[in-house]
Design brief:
three-stranded antiparallel sheet, 90 residues, 3 strands
C-alpha cells in the first residue's frame, strides 16, 4: 500500500488511471485494484469514471487522493515513522 500511496501523493491533485499506477508501482492488477477499492472505502482515495480521450474507446476509472488521503500520506512520511491511522493499513 505504501508504494501506491507514494505514487498517488506525488501527483495528489491529478487523476491517475490504474494502468499508469501499475506501471509506476510494479503492483499487479490483482493487488492494485483491491487496494484502490479499500482506500476508497476508507475515504483516502476518490474514484470517478473519465470520458475516453478518443472516440470509440471505453470510459476509464481514475483515482486521486482525498484531503484525508493527502493528510494520511503526509503523516506516513513523517520522520518519526508514526502511523496515526493504523486501521487504514489493515
Amino acid at each position: 500500500m505504501l508504494a501506491l500511496l507514494e505514487a498517488l501523493a506525488a501527483q495528489s491533485q491529478q487523476w491517475r488511471h490504474g494502468y499508469d499506477l501499475m506501471k509506476e508501482t510494479g503492483l499487479l492488477s490483482g493487488t492494485l485494484y483491491p487496494l484502490l477499492m479499500r482506500m476508497t472505502d476508507q475515504g483516502l482515495v476518490e474514484a470517478e469514471w473519465r470520458a475516453p480521450a478518443q472516440p470509440g474507446r471505453p470510459a476509464r476509472h481514475a483515482y486521486r487522493l482525498t484531503a484525508a488521503g493527502i493528510a494520511f500520506a503526509q503523516a506516513v512520511a513523517e520522520p518519526d515513522g508514526a502511523l496515526p491511522f493504523k486501521s487504514a493499513l489493515a
